[in-house]
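User: Last request for today: this protein with flavin-adenine dinucleotide, please.
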Amino acid sequence: MALLRKSFTQCISNRGLDRVLSQIRLNSSYEIVIAGGGSGGISVGARLSNALGSGKVAIIEPSDDHYYQPIWTLVGAGVKPMSSSRKAMKDVIPSKATWIKDSVAKLNPDEKSVTLSNGDTISYKYLVVAMGIQLHFDRIKGLPEAFETPGVCSNYSAATVGKTLKALKNFKEGNAIFTFPNTPIKCAGAPQKIMYLADEFFRKQGNRDKAHIYFNSAGAAIFAVKKYAEALNKIVASRDITANYGLNLVEVKPDKKQAIFAKMSNPEEKETFDYEMLHITPPMAAPAPIRDSPLSNEAGFVNVDSKTLQHTKYPEVFALGDCSSLPTSKTAAAVACQNKILATNLLSYRENQPRSATYDGYTSCPLITSSKTCIMAEFDYDLNPLETFPVNQAKERRTMYHVKATGLPIVYWNMMLKGRWGGPKFYRKLLHLGMSK
Ligand SMILES: Cc1cc2nc3c(=O)[nH]c(=O)nc-3n(C[C@H](O)[C@H](O)[C@H](O)COP(=O)(O)OP(=O)(O)OC[C@H]3O[C@@H](n4cnc5c(N)ncnc54)[C@H](O)[C@@H]3O)c2cc1C
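Assistant: Here's the final one, the structure of the complex with flavin-adenine dinucleotide:
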């Protein structure tokens, strides 16, 4: 009986696979092709396929899993389980969109097509690029091998986030170092959020007095927005954390438990730190197919208009999220606003109508300062606060922690990925009695 059931299941899944494959070969042209099925690709894919119906939108995405990465800060500190960040990709792909389970190897905007890694070519009328940002652990000498040794961890990838909790639990005494690289990164607050959680963890564990916590950043300040930077500097001082700026991690020597930093002012000059725990935020860059294509700007990101999200040279191409040139902090919160604006403008362009939706750069960084408190940073392109709630959000608040840890994941899975969340603008206006932007 068991054998019969096994062969039947296998037969069904093979036939299912054949159906998917034949569909891909037959429909190698779609009206809209979306490259990438992360936060941006799925949310904009849901909006566009809801508007246009089945068979018009294809999403190219190689992974079996979709992750809600913002919760990895809490996973790293052992506050949330890893399972809370993951859903099967098949369960988040919009029902009216076709999933092409492969990766984009080449973008050919002059031919209006993309080449997949299996060699197939998919043509499009409109292209949305949503391929995220690539992690480059390999650009630090000694990595990724050092991840095989105790104490070295990173909340930035599914493969390494589990090591953070182990490093915290095993920490006895010495230096706990949290790094920030010299490249654009996603969620610029995440490198320090885990540091505040580590401080709290060591206090609870009873060995905070034996820990020297360092924030070694290649940047020049704790945060880009003055209002929140002032609050964060006070927290750093009150928790006895040493913040060093202009230091870029270039090498890890796990055998000696040493981290080597180059000075931003003079990269030839190096500073060596012993570590007991080393949390790494890796250098990041736009994915190679984008960097190698005519779609990229000098920095390698998809060159789009900062207001309309439409490409500056190829009008049938749009981009959102971490792979775009949009000059704002790269977050899922930013993607929430961008997906609505992109879908509105792409559909207008398709109807030969003016692109009326404009993006103001809204982004948000829930700066978790403990397992109970959070500073809810929200701001625009000009680094002006654009706060949703009619309270001072630079203050550490328990309510904001619950918004971050419980509220936003619910909004993400149930609304944003279904094309029903375009950011908090409506609520911001409502809560400010119409007096906010
Ligand atoms: C530790 C951490 C903490 C964070 N905290 C927050 C937070 O508190 N708040 C917040 O708003 N944001 C946070 N973020 C950032 C947020 O997760 C990202 O900004 C957001 O996911 C960006 O969406 P995206 O679609 O651009 O990229 P992603 O969601 O990363 O998706 C990119 C997709 O493209 C796919 N892809 C890549 N290459 C190819 C290819 N060649 N072909 C086809 N597909 C490809 C990938 O498989 C992936 O599915 C955090 C991120 C991390 C890692």
